[in-house]
Amino acid sequence: MTSSWLLIKNGNVIDGTGAPLSANTSVLVKDQQIYDVGPHVGRDAVPHGEALDEIDAAGKTVMPGLIDAHCHMTYGESRTEEEIDLYTSPELRTLKAAWNAQKVLRAGVTGISQPGGSYYIGVGLREAIRDGIVVGPRMTSAGRYISTSNSLTDWYPDSVGVPEGSIGVLANTLPDMVSEIRHQVKNGVDLIKLADSPMGEHQAFTTDEMKALADLAHQLGRQITIHARGSAEVDAAVQAGIDWIMHGNVMTDATIEHLAQSGIPLVPTLLLLANVADWGGLVGTPGPLHDGMARMLDKTAETLHRAHDAGVKFALGTDSGFSVTLYGEWHARELELLMTYAGLSPLEAIQAGTQHGALMLNLDGKVGVIAKGMLADIIVVNGDPVKDIRVLQDKRRIETVVKDGRRVVFDEEAVDRRWPHDRGQAYSVTDLTYELVYGEPAEPAEVGAGEPSTTYGSDAKDLVADVKRREKAARQG
Fold first, then answer.
1. Bigger pLDDT: 346 or 462?
2. Lower CB density within 10 Å: C or N end of the chain?
3. DSSP string across 390-456
4. CA distances (Å), 454 to each of 155, 201, 249, 251, 461, in order?
5. pLDDT above 70 covers what percent of the chain?
6. Alpha-carbon distance 149 to 142, whole Å?
7. What's the pLDDT tens digit per position in 149-173?
């Protein structure tokens, strides 16, 4: 049986390990794996008569495809939490997720991990991509987030409960949490996702609960991650042996030291905060949410710079799937944000977005690096991301995407089309008052006015109040 060969010649190779760029270097791929790399590599290594596809990358950058460790394919580019949880049938959500997968791959993201989503759509999408039925990045998936009543995803009043279509499932006791993990593993998940408090205002799982759940996941051959924005829950997650941690916005020096010593990767997932803070006004983001996320971003920068100085390992994650983090649009911006808000160099940011994401694909040491024997997930970029990391954000500069050793051909018209979930019945993003129409605008109320006082120890309390107001307004609307 003959092999298929691909030669990407004369490019400037960034290998994904943090090493400097290697100029005028060729990459030879045999079937799904990289066969050889170097200035000496050419077509003479290909047996006579076997098919060879050649790409001339002279003057261009050749690097591993990006790995997005925080990509929610079931969110459907929703504008509200209700759109994510309540509207659109499971069948249509599945079709839309499959449609959107090609957009992610077109952006040069050749691997994703979905840390939670509705139903078991992620598991089905993973299999369809693996079998070649759907065009998309290689993928791992969790099931629904496991949440308590004090965590993310238990949004609605108790009279409503947690809908079946919610991205989370409520489990307030350890036996319930254990039972949910067993069911999720039975249904084919790659990883378990825990959801701690929304903005780090408190620790929603006990440390003992985290430890028991991590031990069970590992016993069953699965990895486990957690949404953890505050210092207490990050420190508890480190003690519990969670495999990687999402966010870590506010951490003490002691927590950062424990995280660095553990070697557990942190996926800051700055994109959602930054897109809202920088451009939310362009799309009608409510003022309190915009301002709260901007404040959280500033606090995060101080924390992440200390974490970087301490040697914490970072990985790329974007929270793609919201209307402000569209599929295929902003994945590579996270690299720029890691440089700005955590102090990474361009090569460190690229390493975070390639080599360090392999763990989340269950392929640590097998993908994310341009080296002999690695899986051939490669992109060819018209530009130099070491000099300007933003070139990776322009899809027109991602000239070639190679996945599993084969270049991918896209329907460019299809990848530009938007197909969101069913929209909520919103009438406005603010109130139409008499004063707004005929008189002087009313003085803005103080942040937190009318809200009960809080005793949160976390620096995230301002944003928590903003989010609570937003949720209350959504329920009343």
1. 346
2. N
3. GGGG-GGGEEEEEETTEEPP--HHHHT---PPPPP----SS---HHHHHSPPPPPPPTTTTSPP---
4. 19, 10, 20, 20, 8
5. 92
6. 20
7. 999 999 899 999 899 999 999 999 9
- Closest by Cα among 4, 5, 21, 13 to 346: 21
DSSP 8-state assignment for residue 356 = G
Lowest mean pLDDT among 227-231, 296-300, 355-359, 421-425: 421-425
Q: What is the pLDDT of residue 237?
A: 98
CB atoms within 10 A of CB 473: 13
pLDDT at 427 over 90: no
Tokens found for residue 35 = 């066969």
Parallel/antiparallel/unpaired status of strands 145-147 and 168-170: parallel
CB–CB of 250/236 below 8 Å? no
Instruction: Give the residue among 356, 400, 352, 405 at the shortest CA–CA distance from 376.
Output: 405
pLDDT tens column, 173-207: 999 999 999 999 999 999 999 999 999 999 999 99
The token pair at 317 is: 């994650």
C-alpha 300/C-alpha 387 separation (Å) is 25
Calpha distance 262→257 (Å, rounded): 9
Cβ distance 155 to 177 under 8 Å?
no
Most distant CA atoms of the chain, gap in Å: 82
Burial of 362 (0-12, 13-18, 19+ CB in 10 A): middle
Residue 56 has φ and ψ, to the nearest 5°, of -85, 110
401 pairs with which residues across the strands?
379
What confidence tens digit (pLDDT) does each residue in 84-122 have? Answer: 999 999 999 999 999 999 999 999 999 999 999 999 999
Q: 66-363 falls under which CATH superfamily? A: Metal-dependent hydrolases (3.20.20.140)
The C-alpha R_g of the chain, in whole angstroms, comes to 23
- 3-class state of residue 242 by DSSP: coil
- Say yes or no to pLDDT of 456 above 50: no
Rounded Cα distance, 143 and 154, in Å: 16
